[in-house]
Amino acid sequence: MEIKYLKIVEENPNIGISANIGFSIEKIELIEQKYNNGKKFPQALREFLYLAGDYNGFGFDTSEGIEDLQEKAKKIFSKYGNHIGRPYFVVSKLNGLDTISFIYLDTNEEDPFVYHCDPYFDEKYEEQFIYARACELSKLIKNHIEIIISEQKYYRRN
């Protein structure tokens, strides 16, 4: 796969505590079939899955596996009566499942924006279910990697 958006991931395969592990093209196509009705994912998401979708060392918590993460998110949304009304794909979770980061799949963007939501949203507390639009997926990943590189340089000096 030609890497257009996630060069920094390609150039840093051993970021963090261990090597990134990606999926084969065939596995990505199976995931697309299951979660996007066989349509190709946006290019930046495909690159993420290819380079580091099975495991990554840059802080995108997918430790249970990217497919299990999709199912857990759907279950917790359903349990608390929340619904994302457009096709989406979860790319990360933070603090257990306190924050879920996802992209919409129905845009024509090759490098879509990442959104964050609170899966435990309860409107009686005047919270917002989807509460933030971060930045493009590639930029968010780049920011994570740059922080880790900076920290590694700091700890090597001290």
Q: What is the helix fraction of residues, given as a range? A: 25-40%
CATH homologous superfamily - what is it? SMI1/KNR4-like
- Which radius of gyration do the C-alpha atoms yield? 16 Å
Biggest sheet strand order reads 1-2-3-4
Q: Would you report the number of β strands? A: 4
Structural class: alpha+beta
> Which regions are unreliable across 5 or more consecutive residues at pLDDT < 50?
none
Task: Quickly count the helices.
Answer: 5
Question: What is the approximate shape?
Answer: globular
Mean of pLDDT: 85
> What would CATH call the architecture?
3-Layer(aba) Sandwich
- The end-to-end span amounts to 39 Å
Count of domain modules? 1
CATH class assignment: Alpha Beta
CATH topology: SMI1/KNR4-like
The secondary-structure element order is HHHHEEEEH
Strand content: 15-25%
Main pleated sheet: 4 strands, antiparallel
List strands and helices in order, with pairings:
Layout: H1 7-11, H2 25-36, H3 43-52, H4 66-79, E1 88-94, E2 99-104, E3 113-117, E4 130-136, H5 137-157
Antiparallel strand pairs: 1-2, 2-3, 3-4
